[in-house]
């Protein structure tokens, strides 16, 4: 899975770096010493991410990489975590050619208590109950990271884009269907966008959504 965002170069103790604008532990479901590869304005790089603490990391820049990038104030960054371990079994009964269902409609499911929005989004996309989604994902309240959700989509054969776009409050045109990530306090809140309507596990069906609160989205393939 790739992660795309717009960033800029900062300097700390004489070292130049780009701060990743989301919590890598939460989004990528990866912790510890992490290596990444990707592009910065189409210039390729590979590096070890530098931890800032509590899931936040930076991309360090070598002198040669900095010289290739140039002096732009706004940079298009895309990267992926190397050697990420997935948390789903390989013996899935589903595949892209045999998904759990084809996403051609959406039915609202609401969460009974906080901390289950990710599992609820999977339930809506898969057309299963919330209890079934929790069982498939093997995660409890507050444990449904975007990484676990992507692993579950793959397990269920639900096709999706290979890049999560981090819009950071920019006004964007959303695809027909997507998992949206909204920042709420210390945690992220997830909801589904489907053909002009927002399906929020907490608020219900919404016709409007303030995109300044949108952190990012992952496109889900539809069949209709």
Overview of this structure, please?
- There is one protein chain.
- The chain is an alpha+beta fold.
- The protein folds into two domains: 2-81, Elongation Factor Tu (Ef-tu), domain 3, CATH 2.40.30.100; 117-219, Cysteine proteinases (Cathepsin B, Chain A, Alpha-Beta Complex).
- Helices cover 18% and strands 34% of the residues.
- It contains five helices and 14 strands.
- It has helices at residues 24-28, 63-69, 117-126, 130-137, 146-156, and strands spanning 2-7, 9-12, 15-19, 35-40, 43-48, 50-53, 56-60, 75-81, 163-166, 177-184, 187-194, 197-200, 204-206, 214-219.
- The strands form two sheets. It has a ten-stranded mixed beta sheet.
- Helix 3 (117-126) crosses helix 4 and helix 3 packs parallel to helix 5.
- The longest helix is centred in the last third of the chain and has 11 residues, at 146-156.
- The mean pLDDT is 92.
Keywords, separated by commas or semicolons:
2 domains; alpha+beta; Elongation Factor Tu (Ef-tu), domain 3; ten-stranded mixed beta sheet
Number of helices: 5
Low-confidence stretches: none
**Number of domains as seen in the coordinates:** 2
Q: What is the element string, with H for helices and E for strands?
A: EEEHEEEEHEHHHEEEEEE
Structural class: alpha+beta
Give the overall shape: globular
Rg over C-alpha atoms, rounded to the nearest angstrom: 18 Å
**Spatial strand arrangement across the major sheet:** 5-4-8-1-9-14-10-11-12-13
Quote the average pLDDT. Answer: 92
CATH class category name of the largest domain: Alpha Beta
Proper CATH architecture of the largest domain: Alpha-Beta Complex
CATH topology of the largest domain: Cathepsin B, Chain A
- Proportion of residues in extended strands: 25-35%
Largest sheet: 10 strands, mixed
Helix content: 10-25%
Query: How far apart are the termini?
Result: 25 Å
Count of beta strands: 14
Can you say what the CATH homologous superfamily of the largest domain is? Cysteine proteinases
